[in-house]
Write a structure and sequence with these properties.
Elements lengths: L4 H18 L9 H8 L3 H7 L8
Helix pairs in contact: 1-2, 2-3
Organism: Lactobacillus amylolyticus DSM 11664
Protein name: HTH tetR-type domain-containing protein
Length: 57
């Protein structure tokens, strides 16, 4: 199955947002909504791309 171009673009944005937030606070304090906001995506899209949060890396 071919990957959706939106997902291909969104995943790096999520990873970058997550790394940026980790530089500011500990892993346990990071929220899904905070990552979504920083990556300029909807929270539901984040849930569709990556579950759970520790699978980002």
């Amino acid at each position: 199955m071919k990957k959706d171009l939106r997902t291909i673009r969104t995943t790096p944005a999520i990873k970058t947002a997550f790394i940026d937030i980790l530089q500011e606070k500990s892993f346990n304090k990071v929220t899904v909504s905070e990552i979504a906001k920083r990556a300029y995506i909807l929270t539901g899209k984040l849930s569709n791309c990556i579950t759970p949060i520790n699978t980002i890396f």
